[in-house]
Amino acid sequence: MAAIDAGLYRRASGRCGALRPAVFLDRDGVIVEEVGYLHKVEDITLIASAPAAVARLNAAGVPVVVVTNQAGIGRGYYTWTDFERVQAEIEARLLPGVVAGVWACGYHIDGEVAELRKDHVWRKPHPGMLLDAAEVLGIDLSRSWLVGDKVIDIECAVAAGLGGAVLVRTGYGADHEPKLAALAAGCCAVSVADDLGAAVARIL
Ligand SMILES: [Mg+2]
Questions:
Q1: pTM for this one?
Q2: Is 140 a catalytic site residue?
């Protein structure tokens, strides 16, 4: 079990050498189809291009880091044990592609679980998961990218000072695409791609 406290989860391989760029991936709607509070293995459907996209990043020597809001934990819909079971199955299906780490935040302002009922710096759009991952894995955020399917994912990338972010049209992405225009992206290069495979092709 890799929970840090009741609302936070972190599992990571060790850091190595000099700071390097990474690609942060939102999970639901990016790596797997969005089904709403995914917590059962039988409900997992991988986005078709995901395994090859992760393998491509691996081959390029770019660590892949999953960063996922898991409000369902705070809402009491499922537990970290359910989360780990689903996550293990997703990662098994991604093989030979591998992820360097998984960060998840179960806190939510409307949580049913009393101790998780608050906003948290780890919850996107706040950049806490990315900042912590940068520390643990030795990541150069300014040269890193994020791929997400919601505006809050892109806002998180901007807040963390990433070099770029891609909104994919899978998951909630097609609905969120029109809202991107109002985003003040600063130095973060923001664009839109059909799916994770197209996003990774652009990043590389
Ligand atoms: Mg998502």
A1: 0.94
A2: no
